Amino acid sequence: MTHTSKPDTSKSDTVRLDGKPDDSKPLPPDDLAPRLYEVFAVLGPLYRRVSRKVELNEPIEGLSIGVRAVLDLLRAQGPLTVPQMGRAQALSRQFVQRMVNEAAAHGLVEAIANPAHQRSSLIRLTDDGRTVIDAVITRESALLKRVGGDLTDADVERCVRVLTRMLEVFEDVDIT
Prior knowledge:
7 helices; globular; mainly alpha
């Protein structure tokens, strides 16, 4: 007696001609949740390792992970207020203010007048701050080039899409 196994369709209601589940259809919530837990399981250790790598390089650039995040945000978006930076990074205003103060003490950022709000200055990179964060980005980019493998632009686009959707679910979480 021969035994033929049916394709596993537990993750999808539709099966492709080759017998595999059709992964082009959205997952039902009961199937999606455990898959997103897999993302969290990778994301946590990845974040901690990247943070540790930045900390290990701190003597080179003189940056903590928090100051690095502030400089990177200002590099990408231009001058911002401390509250704007806190919202953008899902960090408390108080923490961001400490990081801005640390960066200012090293001459990496400066406060400038904010035409939209007299009491909340804009924070911008100094030339030294731009030089430091550009060097960090260059060093980190060289490290990221080692990822290699068979990843495509579409793979990265999907990854960003998934993480962005997950972030949207938690937008209401109070960060103060």
